[in-house]
Amino acid sequence: MAAGGGLIGFLLAVLGAGGSILLLPLLISGAGLPTREAVPLSLLAVTLLAVANAGPYLRRRQVAPRPALILGVPALAGSWIGGTLVKHGLIPEPVQLGVFAAAALVAAWLLSRRPTGTQTARAPRSGGSPLALAGQGVLVGLLTGIAGVGGGFAIVPALVLLAGLPMPLASGTSLVLIATNSLVALAALGHWPAAGLPLLGPLVVGGLLGAIGGQALAPRLSDRHLRQGFAALLVGSALLTGAEAFQRQRTTSSAVPSPPTVPQQR
């Protein structure tokens, strides 16, 4: 679990996302936690690691306030709605995992596309649609509340493609949004992951160690390599989570007893 936390911390430091992309499958498939316990534990761990990783980006001023507000405020509303739906049992567990897998595949496809225009590491490209960015924020929030993810895997492509931010600036902005978004979703769920809390320590310690290495490498990695690596990570995580959703759907279906056969009267 500590090794998984180290990889998650490294990805958050380098990409500003990807933590919950690995964490949710790790908790569900690796630790065998039910989704009810894995979702809030994932939100709690990702919040702590996002806050820890945001410091260097803030010191380098790699946070874009305007796109953060345009995307972030609607995302908070979406997080509350998604968490409330899960809290009241309106979204089954296989659907939660299926939504996560589908969203990860879409985000990988979007991020693998070539960005339009010339982007620099210091200034974002102007001309992005605020309405499209706000709409993406609502979707990100819903994903956070439903699937227990920080939303970075959707926030980063939105900031890159819709707001025109380069990857380093999108990563720093994403970390700030991940922390606030996850806290709102956790509050909306209203469920403290007591059974999974012993796993939090190794995850956070490993994540902090991974973050140290990631923060040292982040300024040296190219925008293109970051995008390609992130897209590959999304595809792998989507396939793993989709397989888990299919397996749990089969288990749920086989557990439902068939109705008794009524003998026909002659």
Describe the structure concisely for a colleague.
With 266 residues, the protein is mainly alpha-helical. The protein is 74% helix and 0% strand. α1 runs antiparallel to α2, α4 (65-87) runs parallel beside α8 and α6 packs antiparallel against α7 (152-161).
Could you please describe the fold and organization of this structure?
It is a single chain. By secondary structure, this protein is mainly α. Helix content is 74%, strand content 0%. The longest helix is centred in the last third of the chain and has 33 residues, at 223-255. The protein is globular. The N and C termini lie far apart (63 Å). The model is unreliable at 116-127 (pLDDT under 50).
Key traits:
74% helix; 10 helices; globular; mainly alpha; 266 residues
Low-confidence stretches: 116-127
- Structural Rg: 19 Å
Strand content: under 5%
Q: How would you characterize the largest beta sheet? A: none
User: Structural class given helices, strands, pairing?
Assistant: mainly alpha
Report the strand count.
Answer: 0
How many angstroms separate the termini? 63 Å
Continuous helix count: 10
